[in-house]
Every structure is written in structure tokens, then in C-alpha cells.
Input
Amino acid sequence: MSDYAKRPDDLDGIKQTAEKYGFCIVKGLFSAERMREMEALMAEEWKRGTSRDLMSSDQLRPVILDDKILRIANALLGKELVYYGETSMNYEPEAGKIANNPFRTLHADARGTPGDINKTWDPAPGQVYRGYRFGIYFRDYTRYSGGLKVAPGSHHVGQTKFKPPRGLRNFFGKHRVDLPDGSSIKIPTATYELYDIASEPGDLVIFSLRVFHSAGAARLKQNPTYAMHPAIENDLWKSQPDLFHPYPSGGRNTLFFDYAAPGEEIDLYIKWRAWRSYNSGGDNVEEFNFDDERIVREAAAKGISMRFDKIMAKALKAKQNERLEKLKANNREFSNYHSITAAS
Ligand SMILES: [Fe+2]
Output
């Protein structure tokens, strides 16, 4: 197993790996049968036609409340987990728009500072960001293209210092690739490490909201473990597709869900998402119903508390005053900055 992969019962190892590198692959958490069941539930959910966050879905809530997952989330984040509606399902019966248009831009998700809700969040020396995204991928990315690319350790580095490359200023060295016509090209190599996550069905992929990552990692046939910068990868994928292993067949079906620990940095992230939703819409999903008391109780029984900021932003916009007042009374913030409760 690679340094980045751990077994499900190695909780200390998972935590250490996630904190050291900004991500961890938990190998074989789900059986093949469980993977089939989950994908069937996704197919049912997809038939609704309207997307909703996973906690709001009676089909998929049991997936994200699975004790096997929560045990790992607790090991990473402590006893009290926070859910704030940052979840999504990618599902296609066959490879289509999702599979063929991966977001090949290196970025970190964490945003929000006390002074500016839109600014990128940087760690103090040694500070661990207490929010993770969990990903269940239903295809094999050990041999195929299309998985997650990460920059190991980039969660410790300031975003301004890290500078995702523009032009070639952040590149050094070159990686030689032979072309079918007998000639060769040299690919600029980034100044920092990149890694294409080799996950296979059954694995749980965990990454910090602060680690740099991009989707649709392309695996070179000549050197499948050489992780290319996504800016270059995207051009080469289009101009020389035969150099790469293809995407696996079938939809790029995935489930993504965030859990965090209460704290200032996640408070700012939650509010950034809520204010963005309020100001410009653009949510990943269309419907949020996890303020339903039945769901709140079910999650609370597993040690999960809810943040409703995103639902509040929608209620505020839609002038659903009754719902908004109820949410305001039940929304426990972790900092006073940029409060959507106070503003509404
Ligand atoms: Fe992202």
C-alpha cells in the first residue's frame, strides 16, 4: 500500500495521513455488494430529477450516516460533527456530461477570513483545518483516468505562496513523453508534488477542504504514476488523447459529503457558501430539507449537529419568514463574523 492509503481499522494512521498530506485513501471500506446497493440507491435518487443534499434524501442519508464512515470522521474531527449541507451526488447511467467534463483546475475549497468572507483561508503554522470532504468513487481509478488529483502537503502552505501556476513560472524540470510518430515532447513539471489518487470501488477518499486538488486526473500510458499539472494535462488530453489511459466505462458516479468540527475556520466556510448562495445562487444542489425535525433528530443521535446557514440564505431570498425565524432560533454559530443569522 502507498503512504497515502490506510486500512479502515487504522484510525490513528488515517488521522496522521490526512493531517500530514491533506488527504487519505481508506482501502476497502465497502464490500462489492454494498457498492452495488449504494449505486442502485443513487439511480433511484437520480430518477427524481431534482437534486438535493444527501442528508435530505431518505435514500442516501443512511449512506452518509453509516457508522463505518462516522467512526472515521470522529477519529479525524472529534466527537461532535457538524453537517452544513455541502454534499452532492454525481450520477449518470452512462458516461456523459459529468464524466467527460471534469473540473481540471487546481484549487482549494476553504474560504472566508474574519475580515473578508470571500478571501481564501490560510493556516497558521501547524494549524489543521477541521473540515474534510469524503468521496465515494464507483469506478476504478487505479488504472484508468478520471480520478482525483491532489497536491500532497499543500494544505499547510499559504495560498498566495503556493501560487497555482499561471504560465510557466511555477514549473521546473521536464518529463519526457514519446509520441506515436517517433518524436517526443517534454512536459513541464510543477515545483510541488502532485499525486493522482489510485482509488478503486470500495475505498473512501478523504481530503481536507484546504488541500489543493482537481478532478479528472489523466494517467499516461507510458508512466501511469507521473501526475501532471492539470493545466497541461487538459491541453494534452485534447491534442494527444492516445497517450492516456481512457476513463473507465460507465458514469463517473460519486458521492461527496463534508463533515467538520465546530470551529472558526469552518464557521467562515459555511458562511461563505451561504452568502455566495444568497448573492449569486449557484449551489451544487437544488433542494435542502435537512432542517426537517425528523432528520435533525436522526443526525443528533449520531453526534451530528446541523448548521442551517445555506437554507437560511434560500429562505431569506424566497421571503419564507416562518421557516427563517425557526432556523435563526436553532442555528448555533461558531464565530460572530459575517453572520447570516444577524443579517436576516
Ligand atoms: Fe474542490
Notes: DSSP finds twelve helices and 13 strands in the chain. The longest helix spans residues 264-280. The domain at 5-343 is CATH 2.60.120.620 (Jelly Rolls).
